[in-house]
Amino acid sequence: MKITNCHIHTFTIEDVPNNFIPLLGPLVRFKLLRFPLRLLLKALIPFTDRDLLDRYSKFLRISHLSSQEKIFKTVKNYYPSGTRFIILPMDMKYMSAGKAQRSLDNQHKELAQLASKFQDEIIPFVAVDPRRKNILNMVQDLIENHGFRGIKIYPPLGYYPTDRNLYPVYEYAVENAIPVMSHCSRGGVFDRKKITDDMLTHPDTGETLKKLKPKDFTDYYTDPRNYEKVLKDFPDLKLCLAHFGGSKGWEDYLYHQWDENSPGEEKSWLSKIMDMIKSEKYPNLYTDVSYTILEDENYIHILKVFLSNNELIRDRVLFGSDFYMVEKEKILERLIPMKMRSILGEDLFETVVETNPARYLSEFNNE
Ligand SMILES: [Zn+2]
Predict the structure, then answer these.
(1) What is this structure's pTM?
(2) How many domains does the structure of the chain reveal?
(3) CA of 367 relative to ligand 1 center, distance in Å
């Protein structure tokens, strides 16, 4: 069995805008300060769960490794040899958090070199933001000349996936059977821009939106329902909504009741994605379990029920971990594929780690 982890990151602290973590960000850039800073954090917050702090400092340590190769080698060692990884870069230039130390072009360039060094193991995607100029040229060049095989978008950084500047990119993706991966859980990395009155109308539905804090408002960009429009306009687009609704979506689904027939009531994002898949209207819609599945071991058992109960769901779930974002979580990267294999059983495990990723990546000749 050949595992494909469909969702990891290797970008470094150089790709993260200066004000991403206010105060802490600039401080941790200085190597000499990092260790005393970690001790200081521990001393200042003695009652905080020590374990969480240890995990946070592990996360900081990885993001400060000096190259994507070093970060990649860390994750590679957690998996059996022959495992493949989809690497998702990030374009954080337009999220109103200042400037990053290096350009997106250079982040892509380093990833291209890394992917050519580990050809059988790395599947690189292009990071796309509709506010950047000439994105179609960038996508074409990286895919046609540098071995990139997919496109990554991250709407909470400040745009709707229905942004018309993305349409030529979607068109190109359809024509060339290039898959798109989109971040689709609440929160995450979000645009810091102040919410102004002219932003309070949904561009597709015309609905009036609530003036929330940026952290919450950006959920309007991310909402799974935005993709109904994208997939109506591009029914052949291979699209993965990452994180299967996110842990908030799983909590809402498991612990809150809602009345399906009451118009004001919001469904959990997990249900929204499952309903879209089950509707049979979107045969090229996928989701991945990255991050979410590492938050609670119970979720693996629940995933097994979803996969066993419905063939459509079974064929559309991809394995992914969200390394190194998940270094903050309790279940360790090394254990996750083993736990999934043990709980899901050989057949279901093979479906999500091998069969479905191959179909998403258009690797079957007859499709
Ligand atoms: Zn991710």
Answers:
(1) 0.91
(2) 1
(3) 27
